[in-house]
From TrEMBL:
<dbReference type="InterPro" id="IPR037069">
    <property type="entry name" value="AcylCoA_DH/ox_N_sf"/>
</dbReference>
<dbReference type="Pfam" id="PF02770">
    <property type="entry name" value="Acyl-CoA_dh_M"/>
</dbReference>
<dbReference type="InterPro" id="IPR009100">
    <property type="entry name" value="AcylCoA_DH/oxidase_NM_dom_sf"/>
</dbReference>
<feature type="domain" description="Acyl-CoA dehydrogenase/oxidase C-terminal">
    <location>
        <begin position="240"/>
        <end position="388"/>
    </location>
</feature>
<dbReference type="GO" id="GO:0050660">
    <property type="term" value="F:flavin adenine dinucleotide binding"/>
</dbReference>
<comment type="similarity">
    <text>Belongs to the acyl-CoA dehydrogenase family.</text>
</comment>
<dbReference type="InterPro" id="IPR046373">
    <property type="entry name" value="Acyl-CoA_Oxase/DH_mid-dom_sf"/>
</dbReference>
<dbReference type="GO" id="GO:0003995">
    <property type="term" value="F:acyl-CoA dehydrogenase activity"/>
</dbReference>
<feature type="domain" description="Acyl-CoA oxidase/dehydrogenase middle">
    <location>
        <begin position="129"/>
        <end position="227"/>
    </location>
</feature>
<feature type="domain" description="Acyl-CoA dehydrogenase/oxidase N-terminal">
    <location>
        <begin position="19"/>
        <end position="125"/>
    </location>
</feature>
<keyword id="KW-0560">Oxidoreductase</keyword>
<dbReference type="InterPro" id="IPR036250">
    <property type="entry name" value="AcylCo_DH-like_C"/>
</dbReference>
<keyword id="KW-0274">FAD</keyword>
<dbReference type="InterPro" id="IPR013786">
    <property type="entry name" value="AcylCoA_DH/ox_N"/>
</dbReference>
<dbReference type="Pfam" id="PF02771">
    <property type="entry name" value="Acyl-CoA_dh_N"/>
</dbReference>
<protein>
    <submittedName>
        <fullName>Acyl-CoA/acyl-ACP dehydrogenase</fullName>
    </submittedName>
</protein>
<keyword id="KW-0285">Flavoprotein</keyword>
Amino acid sequence: MTPPTGRTTASSIIQSRIRDIQEAARGVTKQYPRSYILQCIKEDRFPDELWRELGKFGLLGLSIPEEHGGSGGGVLEITALNEALALAGVPTLFLVVTGLGRVPIVRHGTADQIAKYVTPTCTGEKKLCFAITEPNAGTNSFAMSTLATPAAGGGWRLSGQKVFISGARDADFMLVVARTTKAAEVKHRTDGMSLFVVDMKTPGIKLQQLNIQVETAERQYMVFFDNVELPADAVIGEPGKGAKLMFEGLNSERLLAAGAALGLGDYALSKAVTYANDRKPFGKPIGSYQALQHRLALAKAEIEAARLMTYDAADRFDNGEDAGAHANMAKLLASRAAVAAIDATLQVHGGYGFDRDYDVVTLWPMIRLLEIAPINNEMLMNYVGEHVLGLPKSY
């Protein structure tokens, strides 16, 4: 049966958009390959050369309208970029937090705010990260205690702390989710939440690096805010109404994380296939053994299925549809498929898989992290159970 022409045409256009981005990204990753990112990790430094090159080619400006200094396109394009980087073995968490943080500013910020906080990120001149998670709230962000109170002169004073903040040391600005009304004082848990853009040079901000064993160039931080003075125009949108704005960004975050998982999963499989074709302890390539071959084949099939879900969700998001369920399912499926891929890759390599020189075990923490962050898969399944299947809430 022939598919409807309209759907076929839409699918072809999406594939063309993805290919264009991945081709452009390859021009950068050939210049800054996996060995480069491993060197940055070893030296504990941000991959500035890679980041500037992405800006030079207009790739950091993806998803930002041209009138704001961007390259146009939508979440689909920046997701494709994140996948392309991961496919080359150079994943960057910073692109996830940048892509997330810019969404509410572009959609709800003033022209001045967009020019100040978003436009410079399109060239790589400035970097933007995101802070929502707190030590005592965790996944229940509504219970956060970081508080912004009105200050004399029309500004704000921000106090509290955040945790697991990727790239805080390297960021120029941080989009912070804070309460402007305490959780105990609101009628509905989504009330009283606001978004603020914080200049990281502002006095009163302290960073504490966490001892997270994940092979990425971006480090994770605990961030402390001690009566940090913010100008009146630091707040994005209407004070107290930031929850909806936050969730708009979080849907894009899910998709960017899915893109990273897809790329890393395929990157791991490529290493497994190369090794399985070369390794011949009994005279035949171990890749011919069905115990390994079927495992790799299943992982590949699951990655491809997750890829379809991911870009369908991104297309829905860009077209203004409610993409929450699809974005959650995309991140769930992509992260699970990537974990299956790296697990199979480790098994194929046997003991050598745990030799860091083979660069296989080095991939595992990052891939496994994607089942936990930016939100754990259990919460994604809770969402699907409640909002898609109509099952009762359990928490």
